[in-house]
Amino acid sequence: MGGTMTAEALPEASQLRRDDSKWPVPPEDGYTVDDFFTLDLPPHTELIDGSLVFVSPQRNFHTLAMYLLEQGLRQQVPEALRVRREMAVVLGKRNVPEPDLVVVKADGVGGPRQTRYEAADVVLAVEVVSPDSEDRDRDTKPHKYAAAGIPHFWRVEMSGEHDRPVVWTYECDAVTKTYVSTGVHHDRLKLSVPYDIDIDLTAIDRL
After folding, report:
1. Which residues pair with 152 in a beta bridge?
2. In angstroms, rounded to a whole number, what is the distance separating the alpha carbons of residues 71 and 164?
3. Strands 164-173 and 178-185
4. Which of 64, 99, 166, 199 is the most buried (most CB within 10 A)?
5. What global pTM score does this model have?
6. pLDDT tens sequence across 26-54
7. Which element (helix H / strand E) includes 64?
């Protein structure tokens, strides 16, 4: 999602809050989680290593893949879990990514005003790769999700002559805090973890 941008200092400005229309001025050592949730930022902005990452216009594939996977995840989700899309996940002091989809523990879900989830509440994080987010979605984010102990990760990319989704699935090694590949799924995504899931990936053609 989006490109990394660091705003330049504005004259006579400090860190600006929601009641100010100017771009925020980054602290010398980068933003923290506390800073991030008080700034007036465009929708879907992420915090990665203390820097703000802004979303770029997405391809139609991105929207359709998210919809297909969200619907598939919801079909058999257990009572103890919930499916959410585009919600901030706090990984640490300077990292607040926004996965395209997450499966979270039901007891980590608050009321309608909730703006974030803690990494400990996330069971699965899903990233749909865009041209401008390849490095982050393939490398940066998976490493951070694994280090934070998120058990499962999916990476979704457009592939093949029909531009359909291919899903790479990973499971976290609890000892090394790294992801281990558990499969590459082309036409059908059928899994038993984190719960029973069966998604026809070719159905994107009918959306």
Report:
1. 124, 171
2. 16
3. antiparallel
4. 99
5. 0.87
6. 888 999 999 999 998 999 999 999 999 99
7. helix 60-75
How many whole angstroms separate alpha carbon 81 and alpha carbon 68?
18
Taking CA atoms, 41 is separated from 19, 22, 71, 164, 168, in Å, by: 11, 10, 29, 32, 31
CB atoms closer than 10 angstroms to residue 42: 9
CA separation for the pair 51, 30 (Å, rounded): 6
3-state secondary structure 37-58: CCCCCCCCCEEECCEEEECCCC
Question: Quick one: which of 82, 85, 91 has its CA closest to 36?
Answer: 91
The residue assigned the tokens 């929708």 is: 43
Q: Which amino acid is at 116?
A: R
> Quick one: pLDDT band at residue 71, thresholds 50, 70, 90?
very high
* 3 state DSSP class of 36: helix
Contact 51, 75 (CB under 8 A): no
